[in-house]
Amino acid sequence: MNKLVLTVALSSAFVSFNAHAWGNDGHRAVGAIADQLIQGSNAGQRVKALLLPGESLEKVSIWADCVKGTYCGPQSEEMLAYVAANPQHAEYHYTDVPFQNAHYHDHDAGTADVDIVQTLKQCIATLQGKGDKISNPHGFTPRQALLILTHLAGDVVQPLHVGAAFVDKNGAFVVPQKQAQIDAVNMFDARGGNNLLLDDVKLSANSAQLIPAAPPEDKPAASGTPPRAPQTTRPFHSYWDTTVVNYVFRRVGARSPQEFAQLAIAGKPAVTANSGDAISWPYAWADQSLAVAKLAHAGVTAGAIGQQTSKTGEVYNVWALTVPDDYPVPSSAAAKTQLIQGGYNLAAVLKAIWP
């Protein structure tokens, strides 16, 4: 079987994790689904009371990414105050459980006290009115808890934001049992694929044969807009954040997150139900994403360790990976399921908090 080639650049100096799960359209799709599902309910009224005029779950779904910089526009006083009070806020968006594992457990390798599961629990507790210093160490206000919950409900269903790849020097995927084993000497953390560089040209060529073309835009592009230079590589994580969402929208014929939400709900999707106290649901959400993370890495193999040099002169380790030619098909199908599940999860937890 022919393969697409991926280059994995795993820098031992890589510390921060700045990828934005699903990108704007994916997060807005999750929020738009929840908006429609809670409409007319008590949860819908309680959400409206915490949001500002003109806001919706769809519109605020990217707030937690917007606070990371100015690419959404100037930072508001609310954003600046949140960032100042939460210096580790970028770490709230993910956890690094080995993708081979079936479950997320507190204090296992790859987890942290400030990771996505723990932060989701704190948001839910705050909205339940249980936001004391133990259950809400970040000191979230109810509005902040809603804004962060809305975003992280999307992040937690992005499989690479939960299931991480760890690689040894021979290129084999390995499973660390303890955090101390992840030493960037014998065992390397791929950081959710954020440093895995995908051959975008080859992937685009294959996707053109496998994924329907995008629906035509209602308005033509503005004249005089210079075309973007073709991108030859993209992080594997970025593929799962944005490229695969584009494939999902193309496959269902949606031009916007709201249209995707309408089509998804109209299709009466089979979604996994939540049970028990809502405070425990983030564990189930993470476990479900781990199962999808296994699919995301299925058929992917790595070669022997190599090295590359960055533009700044830093030498870092690399592996060459291969994925099946039809990778856009199963990955976009999985992403569609996850986006819908995220929207239904968000609506369900809000209704559980405010029956």
Topology diagram in text:
Blueprint: E1 3-10, H1 23-38, H2 42-50, H3 57-60, H4 63-66, H5 77-85, E2 97-98, H6 116-127, H7 142-155, E3 163-164, E4 166-168, E5 187-189, E6 196-199, H8 200-210, E7 233-235, H9 236-252, H10 257-266, H11 281-296, E8 301-302, E9 306-309, E10 315-324, H12 328-353
Helix pairs in contact: 1-7, 1-9, 1-10, 1-12, 2-12, 6-7, 6-11, 7-12, 9-12, 11-12
Textual characterization of the structure:
By secondary structure, this protein is an alpha+beta fold. 42% of the residues lie in helices and 12% in strands. The chain has twelve helices and ten strands. The chain has helices at 23-38, 42-50, 57-60, 63-66, 77-85, 116-127, 142-155, 200-210, 236-252, 257-266, 281-296, 328-353, and strands at residues 3-10, 97-98, 163-164, 166-168, 187-189, 196-199, 233-235, 301-302, 306-309, 315-324. The strands form three sheets. Strands 1, 6, 7, 8, 9 and 10 form a six-stranded antiparallel β-sheet that branches. A hairpin with a 5-residue loop joins β9 (306-309) and β10 (315-324). α1 (23-38) crosses α9. The longest helix has 26 residues, at 328-353. The protein is globular and about 55 Å long. The protein starts with a strand and ends with a helix. 43% of the residues are buried.
Tags for this entry?
6-stranded antiparallel sheet, two-stranded parallel sheet, alpha+beta, single chain
